Amino acid sequence: GQSLEQPSEVTAVEGAIVQINCTYQTSGFYGLSWYQQHDGGAPTFLSYNALDGLEETGRFSSFLSRSDSYGYLLLQELQMKDSASYFCAVRAAPGGGYQKVTFGTGTKLQVIP
Amino acid sequence: DAMVIQNPRYQVTQFGKPVTLSCSQTLNHNVMYWYQQKSSQAPKLLFHYYDKDFNNEADTPDNFQSRRPNTSFCFLDIRSPGLGDAAMYLCATSRDRLLLSYEQYFGPGTRLTVT
Given an 8 Å threshold on Cβ–Cβ distance, is B48 in contact with A50? Predict the structure, then answer.
């Protein structure tokens, strides 16, 4: 089966840097996505890693190590509006079937002044 | 702006009374998904359509059905809602199932309350 693990909660100070980790177990792995979801809102896409290494998009960066089945989301220059839940999501074709996306349990980030 | 629209945003239904949630998209995407998300939990995929090809997740209860009459619209039917079906229901689309189409676009969700 598939499983994804993330810390349930993280607190960080405005202006600081925070890293949210994600470890996964799956077969037929294609890539790892990150989504942001504010309370009461819909998930919005942040990034996608199919290959090992770091992808940077503005204040947000995402890293993947396929050999370690591990990735992280790095948020720099934290702002109060970054307070939200962050989900990693594995794109995989387990058992050689069709590709699908499975979401992790989510990490609730609280940014404090 | 191209988008994913869900109606209604809030739906209240009675225990056992059938309810339909709707989703429309102006993105002209081939794939449409329905997710169930309960409080403080991850979105859980119920099923998806690749064009007219319906794909049900193995653990989706038979109580949940879906229809996609055309590219733009997709419906979620809950035949006999139970109290445990109260959740946010999210519709999402993606351009394709292929490797390059990794981004899913989510609608605002419909929050279902079962009384």
Answer: no
